[in-house]
Design a protein that fits this description.
By secondary structure, the chain is of the alpha+beta class. It has 14 helices and 31 strands.
């Protein structure tokens, strides 16, 4: 155990951690030149395409330092705020962390957020200044920020570049010297924490774990502590670029286990593996359950694919345990699932993965957050409202509360005015403003979560020309003046487009949605009114004009009554058509409601 080091990489999105991880793999000879490619640990096509890490990836490296052989277990983590759950799981399995900061961009919101997570778990922090080869690098300024943030010495900051390989040997030496070896007792009963799992269509579920105490051997009977089920350890091993089978793994090791499990719900990330003969007395406290922030309905385009969609979602949940879902039905869309996501990017990624990995084309409804409503008759009872259609009758309702968040925005001083205007427009209240350096400022707001669900992040990036970074965490619920806004097409309510909105925004939002739907819904043979309504009161209306068919074209000459007869017949037909006509809402219409400001 003296020669094992477990560490993870934490950084803001796009600060070059995957590239630096590639250099570490090359320097330790873990990956051959033939296998080498950019973002070597990111095995998902989507990750390469977007240049972001979505899943944390564990890998074992062997490193010889001062005549001794060391085993380094590295976990590369995502940097986007929506995937901070992956980071918290990785941190729970490590003793040290590489804090990577881009020398040209400086410290950003997510860097601070992930750093606090690491400090809560008493991890040893190794500060690294990355992208030193860029012409825009500002090593002195950014070093000052790092020293101020983590209270270290200037000499401790390692200057590195993922592109050129600068500083890679210093990083590996710092990991060996600074990160403490794992603690554990090999004689104690087996305790190993599952921190991730993946599904393999040929071998079933592969669980990744970190052994805290005891020894796990191939073929041994093991028990999952929380589900209380026993299995055989058919294969155990360590994670290199592929799976590397071993006979046994001891305390401090990070590895994988295959036990022929086929059902996704039998493996819970965060569960403890112990032995069936000599089980441990209590499970390991790794990390708490994730709380979804944004809710949306996901429906199959063809209702016959419902079971297939359920199967796909279960497989996805295994690989991404922060996804939660439950069955629901909608009058407009049939049977589907109500899903909870950590944020908008998370929702987009899940949709994309369903399409690519399972060939499932889905319709996603307007995302919203969960509210708490209190009734006048039973003031102590709380109703959780996840969907606008679940909202109780407003006449019997005492108050409704919505979730609030504390948002931190780090930006350049020249964009402060535009960002404050945006936050106040989104019902935010300024809490604090701190100048980190002369031209970087941290602004703290308290604002409703519902306001950032739609287009807040995109607009923040555009008003700051991409220089603002954003991070948030929930602070609780507050009472608010919310009303339910319905959308009617041809007099029929489309429940998938209903939304709970603040009274002050309702008229403006209703008008904008109606205009957007007017553009996107194809014209029919009859006139379609598009209306936004609060209860029985219509607050906005647009009309999609009917396609005209010239029925009088064949009438040349003759009496006017012949033409009138045909026009009357057409008018009656249009009226009947409007009564029985159903309006199909295209998928773009659901998505366009999210991007009203584009």
């Amino acid at each position: 155990m003296k020669h094992i080091r477990n560490f993870c990489i934490i950084a803001h999105i796009d600060h070059g951690k995957s590239t630096l991880a590639d250099r570490l793999l090359q320097a330790t000879g873990t990956i051959s030149e033939r296998e080498m490619q950019n973002q070597a640990l990111d095995d998902m096509e989507l990750e390469r395409e977007r240049g972001i890490t979505i899943k944390s990836h564990a890998i074992q490296m062997s490193y010889r330092y001062e005549g001794l052989d060391y085993t380094l277990n590295l976990i590369d983590t995502p940097g986007h705020v929506d995937f901070s759950y992956e980071v918290s799981r990785s941190i729970a399995a490590c003793e040290g962390a590489l804090l990577i900061v881009d020398a040209s961009q400086g410290i950003e919101a997510q860097t601070i957020s992930n750093l606090y997570l690491a400090l809560e778990h008493d991890l040893q922090i190794i500060p690294i200044l990355n992208k030193m080869d860029l012409p825009g690098a500002m090593p002195e300024e950014v070093s000052d920020q790092i020293v101020e943030l983590i209270d270290c010495e200037y000499e401790e900051i390692i200057q590195a570049s993922g592109k050129t390989g600068l500083g890679v040997d210093e990083i590996l030496a710092a990991v060996v010297n600074s990160v403490p070896a794992p603690e554990g007792d090999e004689e104690a009963p087996l305790q190993a924490m599952i921190f991730d799992s993946v599904f393999n269509p040929f071998r079933g579920i592969i669980a990744y774990f970190r052994v805290k105490n005891g020894v796990i051997r191939k073929g041994q009977r093991i028990r999952f502590f929380n589900t209380n089920r026993d299995y055989n350890a058919d294969e155990i091993g360590v994670l290199k670029m592929g799976l590397d089978p071993k006979k046994e793994l001891r305390a401090g090791d990070v590895g994988y286990i295959i036990s022929g499990i086929k059902q996704a719900n039998e493996v819970k990330v965060g569960d403890t593996i112990t032995s069936s003969e000599n089980p441990c007395q209590e499970d390991l406290k790794g990390f708490e359950d994730v709380k979804p922030m944004v809710f949306a309905g996901i429906y199959p385009v063809d209702s016959e694919d419902y079971e297939e969609l359920r199967y796909s979602m279960e497989k996805l949940q295994l690989n991404d345990s922060s996804l939660v879902f439950e069955p629901e039905s909608s009058a407009a869309l049939g049977f589907g699932f109500r899903c909870g996501f950590l944020g908008m990017l998370h929702m987009e990624i899940i949709q994309e993965r369903l399409d690519r990995e399972f060939n499932m084309t889905v319709i996603t409804t307007v995302p919203n957050v969960s509210y708490k409503s209190y009734m006048k008759k039973t003031p102590d009872e709380v109703f959780i409202v996840n969907n606008p259609s679940e909202l109780p009758d407003p006449s019997g309702m005492d108050k409704i509360e919505e979730p609030y968040i504390r948002a931190q925005v780090i930006t350049k001083t020249e964009y402060v005015g535009a960002i404050m205007t945006l936050c106040i427009e989104k019902r935010g209240e300024l809490q604090n403003q701190v100048y980190l350096t002369q031209d970087r400022v941290e602004i703290t707001f308290e604002m409703p979560l519902a306001e950032i669900v739609f287009d807040f992040y995109d607009r923040l990036k555009s008003v700051s020309r991409g220089y603002a970074s954003f991070d948030y965490h929930p602070t609780g619920y507050k009472a608010s003046d919310l009303i339910k806004m319905d959308l009617l097409l041809n007099g029929e309510q489309v429940d998938a487009l209903s939304a709970l909105v603040h009274r002050s925004n309702a008229f403006d939002l209703g008008k904008r949605i109606c205009l957007k739907l007017k553009e996107l819904i194809p014209r029919q043979q009859f006139e379609i009114p598009v209306q936004a309504a609060i209860g029985a009161k219509v607050i906005a209306r647009e009309t999609i004009k009917a396609l005209r068919k010239d029925v009088t074209a064949k009438c040349y000459g003759g009496d006017i009554t012949r033409k009138r007869k045909l026009l009357e017949k057409q008018k009656a037909g249009k009226k009947r058509m409007r009564q029985v006509g159903k309006v199909e809402v295209p998928q773009e219409a659901f998505l366009a409601v999210l991007k009203l400001n584009d």
